[in-house]
Amino acid sequence: MSSLSLSFSQSIPHIFKTEAENPKLEGFSRVLPCIAFARAAPSSPTRKRATSTPKRTTPPGKHRLWKVGEHPGVSDASHSRSLPRSTPLKNVKKKIDDRNAAKGWASTVTEALSEKIQKKQWEAALEIITDDDGIWDVFTVLLDKMKTLPLCQPDVFTYSTLLKACVEMSRFELVDTLFQEMSERLITPSTVTQNIVLGAYGKAGKFDKMEEVLSGMLESSTCKPDVWTMNIILSLFGNKGQIETMEKWYEKFRSIGIEPETRTFNILIGAYGKKQMYDKMTAVMEYMRKMAFPWTTSTYNNVIEAFADVGNAKNMEYTFNQMCAEKMKADTKTFCCLIKGYGEAGLYQKVVSSVQMAEKLEISANTSFYNALISACTKANDLMEMERVFNHMKNKKCEPDSTTPTRLQKLESLGVVYLLSPFPYLIS
Q: What share of the chain is helix, strand, coil (3-state, %, to 5)?
């Protein structure tokens, strides 16, 4: 992606300030002064934020949208309006014909899925559709069927859905095939289509492919980048800790007229927080207040996480209290960060109180939540409670991820079990 980093003629001084020599500030009032006036009304009137709505591009005139053997559908909507209405008798006959034809084109996977659903055998149906090959077989059969129907020709939304399925199943080898088929059928990809593929390539670490898609969007006249594109790119570099590249791309997108949104600023805040660049994190938050962008749960979570990572319980707790004062609803990530932060700081009683508060608020416990608890147990050298949390995690059908065994192995290697657990049963 470095080859895409262009020279930028403009900078954004109100956000990207030079870091002080010592970015790790002592008191919270020096780190986030804007929180002190968190509930104050914005000093400036609400700004009208520009939004970018992807436009669906339709090639002019009638175009060939079929291959040999498929139904000769046309691209203009007037075709459907010119068709005569069928009589009731013809409708009945058509339904019978369609039902008989369906038996011929339905694949084994589709028939099996339909049978399980009709019998309300939900678990068996899920086993079929959670298999990657099974899902793709269903999609392929449906697409092939659509190609034979005069009024149901696949369009850009059809292919966007298929591309999304491909990338979610990591079937990247099919992406190029689908794009080629779209080209043959004269279907122009939309900005939404490109963003789906762009984000998937980023998550998979396929940066060469990502660069190819992004370059095409910048050069295109029909599917230009929008704020979603901007967020995908900023999130990628922010998560990788490449702050300078992230800032350059922010300036690049602004220079071509793309306006940021609240999620854009939350991405910046999260990236700065992970790098302990508190001055810049504060500057973004102040800018949001000034321009009347609302602070959200994600905004607070990013700040809480920044302090939790370094065990700064004081500032983490201050932020959480301010979040509650603004009546902002905490979520699972909020409590994951609190538990992790208190564990890092060795405040085990506050770990327990955070778990109790989460239960009171009926916060959903996921794998990250249990991992935070196991991490706190690791810090306390409490093997007994760690094993109890891990067993509770499995009983709740929360699958351990790649980081869970690491925590277990680390604690087991210590060979220490405290008879008097610092945790009076984390999980009730």
A: 60, 0, 40
Cβ distance 147 to 116 under 8 Å?
A: no
Q: Specify the pLDDT at position 97.
A: 57
Burial code (b: 16+ CB inside 10 Å, e: under 16) for 142-171 equals bbeebbeeeeebbbbebbbebbbbbbeeeb
Q: What is the pLDDT of residues 65-82, one digit of tens each?
A: 555 555 444 444 444 344
Any idea which residue has 């602070």 for tokens?
295
In the block, which residue shows the tokens 């084994």? Answer: 108
Nearest to 54 by CA among 257, 193, 164: 193
Predicted TM-score (pTM) of the model is: 0.68
Main-chain phi, psi angles of 218, to 5 degrees: -65, -30
H helical segments located in 346-397 = 348-360, 367-379, 383-395
Comparing 24 with 304, which gets the higher pLDDT? Answer: 304
Reading the block at residue 191, the tokens are 């900005």
Sign of CA dihedral 365, 414, 342, 297: negative
3-state secondary structure of 306: helix
| Residue closest to 351 by CA, chosen among 297, 416, 418, 427 | 427
Four-residue CA torsion sign, 368, 370, 373, 375: negative
* 141 membership: H or E segment, kind and range: helix 132-147
**pLDDT > 70? residue 332:** yes
